[in-house]
Amino acid sequence: MLRAAGIGVGDEVVVPAFGNVELAEAVALVGALPVFADIDPDTYCLDASSVEAALTSRTAAVVAVHRFGRPADMRPLHGVGQRHGLLVLEQGESEMPYDETAQRRQRAAYLDGKLRGVRTPDWGEGHTYQQYVVRVPGNGRPDRDAFARAVRVRGVECRVPVKTPVHRMPGFRRCVSLPETERAADETLALPVDASLTKRDMQRIVSACNALGGLLQPAF
């Protein structure tokens, strides 16, 4: 997409740091400079105001990423693009069959109603729950990592969706303030909502997580 748009040496492309490094690598591959903007804490997608603050005279494009099955709010991003004459691109996630999406939403709704002591995802319009990402409140990464270990001991598979923001990685390290990105990297944990999970599996997930709820401060 970047090459087709004529993006190259001397250009800057605004991208999220919360996610995989491949996007920043793709920008660098065409000779442009990736510039990182912060995310919206509810959607984990680019925040339009942070994007606007990151613009310079060399900015040529913005690439929004739909994260965890939650679509980015493209309207304010397109507004930024129109005001500044920028190309706004989208990086989507692979689509799932309708039946699988419906089952994931059903399991996500069950977890929404049962989990205690963690912050459940914002539903949002069109959320497909490719990942069911909660936040473990407390003092950041040590609490989240301890929570994850304890849940795994109870037989529940879980994973940290973004271990290190791209702006903290070698080769892309930047002195930039991205507080929501760093907070999300420290607090988020993906719980299973696969269509293959049985009711007993879902109950096990809730039981494992809620057994630790007394150790945490409520999310709200």
SSE inventory with pairings:
Blueprint: E1 12-16, H1 22-29, E2 33-37, H2 48-53, E3 59-65, H3 74-84, E4 87-91, H4 98-114, E5 132-135, H5 141-153, H6 179-187, E6 188-191, H7 199-210
Parallel strand pairs: 1-2, 1-3, 3-4
Antiparallel strand pairs: 5-6
Work out the helicity level.
Answer: 25-40%
Uncertain runs with pLDDT below 50, 5 residues or more?
214-220
List the total number of helices.
7
Overall mean pLDDT? 92
Taken as a percent bin, the fraction of beta residues is 5-15%
The arrangement of helices and strands along the chain is EHEHEHEHEHHEH
Structural class of the secondary structure composition? alpha/beta
Q: What is the 3D shape?
A: elongated
The overall number of domains is 2
Order of adjacent strands in the largest pleated sheet: 2-1-3-4
Radius of gyration: 18 Å
Find the CATH superfamily of the largest domain.
Aspartate Aminotransferase, domain 1
Biggest sheet descriptor: 4 strands, parallel
Q: CATH topology of the largest domain, which one?
A: Aspartate Aminotransferase, domain 1
Query: How many beta strands in the DSSP annotation?
Result: 6
CATH class of the largest domain: Alpha Beta
* Straight-line N-to-C gap: 41 Å
CATH architecture annotation name of the largest domain: Alpha-Beta Complex
